[in-house]
Specification:
Strands 1, 2, 3, 4, 5, 6, 7, 8, 10, 11, 12, 13, 16 and 17 form a 14-stranded mixed beta sheet that branches. This protein has a five-stranded mixed beta sheet with strand order 9-19-18-14-15, with no helix packed on it. β2 and β3 form a beta hairpin. It is built from nine helices and 19 strands. It has 282 residues and is an alpha+beta fold. It is globular. GO terms for molecular function: hydrolase activity. Keywords: Hydrolase, Metal-binding. Belongs to the FAH family.
Length: 282
């Protein structure tokens, strides 16, 4: 099961994407639901949609290629990012791999969706994009151990995380500023439910994440080569503060690319999706 949001005449509409049947409005499958994908995660009913989609009439579905995807939702309570989590990427930056997750937070004003432009802010002369595997929390998570952490994850999705690197280079304490310009977090096109991913891959370790610029794969690596696995990241941050349904954890990148106006940045994750955004001058 995949949850998403599409642009249509009503604005942004939550949908279910069924790999075999197409796209159906959540309201068609669950008429008593009102609200966005975030609300579905919050009230715990998102998992019911898969069964409803299997028995729904064909008329409620439309072809996936006929819709334009938006960001799955716009107002998560928290967005965590993780720096230097792939061992090889830390080596690229001549940085040592941290002994604990090097995490930071982003505001929801940074969110854009598939196809939306990434604006390069005039305050920065070197902006990079980083492809990442994102996790979305599905139920309240506090003080959990790694072996139980994925039970609290609803699903995964592609992410493009942007950084004003020249600002960061001036002082590492400028990390929050360098990460928080508008358009500096794209995610989508859909949230893939964790059981579907686990069934396809037998776990998360073999998932490959690729940073792509203008159609060329610049860096790729598998989740197995993370310093801190997704389950550990969920556990670690749950011991800092409560994680609520819809909270996002971006798990780090295999490598970044420098952006210029006219470029197209992509995150490709086989079996999960491809996220693509054009780059424009801000």
């Amino acid at each position: 099961m995949r949850l998403a949001t599409v642009h249509d005449a009503r604005g942004e509409t939550p949908v279910l994407v069924h790999p075999g049947r197409g796209v159906a409005d959540v309201a068609e499958l669950m008429p008593d639901h009102s609200g966005d994908v975030m609300a579905l995660l919050g009230d715990g009913r998102a998992r019911r949609l898969a069964a409803l989609a299997e028995t729904a009439p064909a008329a409620v579905f439309r072809p996936e290629e006929s819709v334009r995807f938006a960001a799955p939702y716009r107002r998560p309570r928290k967005i965590w990012g993780i720096g230097l989590n792939y061992v090889a990427h830390a080596g690229d930056l001549t940085e040592s791999v941290p002994e604990e997750p090097a995490s930071f937070m982003k505001g929801d004003h940074t969110i854009i969706g598939p196809g939306d432009p990434i604006p390069l802010p005039p305050q920065s002369e070197r902006v990079t994009a980083e492809a990442e595997l994102g996790l979305v929390i599905g139920r309240l998570c506090r003080n959990v151990e790694p072996e139980d952490a994925l039970d609290h994850v609803f699903g995964v999705f592609p992410v493009l995380d942007q950084t004003a690197e020249d600002i960061l280079a001036r002082n590492p304490r400028f990390l929050t500023r360098s990460k928080n310009f508008p358009g500096f977090l794209s995610f989508g096109p859909a949230i893939v439910a964790l059981p579907e991913v686990m069934s396809a891959f037998g776990g998360l370790a073999d998932i490959e994440v690729s940073t792509v610029l203008n159609g060329e794969v610049r860096r790729r690596d598998t989740v197995a080569h993370m310093r801190f696995a997704p389950a550990f990241l969920v556990s670690f941050h749950s011991k800092v503060m409560p994680l609520f349904p819809g909270d996002i954890i971006c798990t780090g990148t295999p490598g970044a690319v420098v952006l210029s106006p006219g470029d197209v940045a992509e995150c490709r994750i086989d079996g999960v999706g491809t996220l693509r955004n054009p780059v424009v001058a801000g």
